[in-house]
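Troubleshooting: if your tokenizer reports a length mismatch, compare against these two reference records.
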Amino acid sequence: MQEFAKVISTISLSMIITSYLIIELRNLKYSAYVYMIQAMLMCTLFAIFAIDNPGLYYWAATAFITKVVIIPWLLLRYIKKTTDREFQPLIGYLGSIFLISAVVVVLYRVTHTYIGFVAPSQFATAEPFRTNLAVSLSIFFMGLYCILIRRDAIKTVHGLLILENGVHLSLVTLAPALRETALIGIVTDVVIAVWILLYVIYGIYQKFGSTDTLQLRGLRW
């Protein structure tokens, strides 16, 4: 695994960049395409870790089907039915980029520096696991930020997908050798939840003509 340490760290750090793009791109179709790229990076990490745990090849295969194929297809399908432009977010470009950058820098540095507190094991302090855990926590909070701050309902689905990738990155990093890791990863895939959310969002769009989540209060009428 040592010869792949730099490759793994590079791929995981690239997931922070793709998370930025998914959140900040106002064109929802472009965000969906960038998510597809991030999903491919995630599947690549699963395949690399599978060198020492062949069971992870099953997770990589199922993740490719759900993350790279089905979910982007669902996103693009429902974006076509609604709108490809994100509803005006609560925070503009500059403010959003500054806020995300500040959170990511703090989380990454704190987690990377005090990894022994976050994951008290000698295994977690070695590379690329140390970097992966710092990245996974950063991505998790980027997804949470997207869910809480963005007004567009489809964009919040993107946030859920980013959050899921952060969780799965931490899972494969903390337990890459366990046989149960692949099973846990497969059963925690959010593809069904994403389909249900998009179906509901489409119904809201048909009623209100908008994907603005602030209009959900009107559903009580």
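Reference record two:
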Amino acid sequence: MARAKIPRKSTSVDMTAMCDVAFLLLSFFILTTKFKPSEALKVVTPSSVSNKVAPEKDVVLITIDKDGKVYLSVSDQNQTQKADMLDEINTEKNIGLTSAEKANFVKKPSSYIGVPFTQLKSYLGHAPEDLKGITIPGIPVRDSTDNQLTTWLHAATTAFSGIKFNLLIKGDDLSKYPSFQGVIAACKKNDLMKLSIVTNPVAVPAGSELYKINMAAGAQKPQ
């Protein structure tokens, strides 16, 4: 007896539910994603062959712009240390900072110091977002008798007492050497001999000695 043939029917899958879930997930990620804030100080760093990522916590960052102006900032996660640094400077230099002026450096993200002590009070009277149109002279470092970065780094060393902080220098490719020399002098006076230079990482040039070493090391790794 011949077997009855079952008619073939096309299969259809309702994708409505899956599309709804996809759009819900997309909306969730858009609403919860934190975008990287724009840099308060824009500098074009020199390139170097490096794959080491700069730390984000326990950081004291010295920035030198293309005009040779020097700025100091502390990682936003270290609000306690930022407050301690500012308190020490305020007491030592008798500046008379108010709580609101201190908060503009301590609690606002990506805040930095870029003025002499004589202008510190008026400088901190501005919110960080209002400083874009203001000309800032930078921290004095070129005069060996008045290298104010030395005082700031001493305050940082005291504030980070018991904590190993990361000292980073981020200089523009066109920055002036006297400013860099003043920064190094301030570091030496505080016995801060270990520091890192922030650069723009590039790939190892093919055919170079370092490229051959890396290739050889990769070939020797156990499979």
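Descriptive notes for reference record two:
- The first helix runs from residue 16 to 32.
- The longest strand covers residues 59-64.
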